[in-house]
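step: validate -> pass
step: tokenize input -> pass
step: predict -> running
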Amino acid sequence: QVQLVESGGGLVQAGGSLRLSCKASGRDISVYAMGWFRQAPGKEREFVASISWTGGSPNYADSVKGRFTMSRDNFKNTVYLQMSSLRPDDTAVYYCAADASMGFRAPYWGQGTQVTVSS
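step: predict -> pass
step: emit ->
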């Protein structure tokens, strides 16, 4: 079992920045692919970014490329999502996920952290 706890969400004006953290416990996350997903009101959960257990170049959704940066620190069992140039359509609950594969077919989920971007 892996427990994931997100933090760092909040209210920010458009153009601002936030840094989300996801702290894992229960297992060493160095063997897991890690991802960030988000769900806006009335919409399905969508992929934001992911990074393999090797820590190679992250993958990003087209909507966040050039604005968001994902990183991982296996020593701290933590992954991060640095979000810049935030837009109102980035408003969502952001979830951290851990899975054995980059497909995220049956991941462990965190409880989510709310990000609200005001115009």
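step: describe -> The radius of gyration is 13 Å.
step: cleanup -> pass
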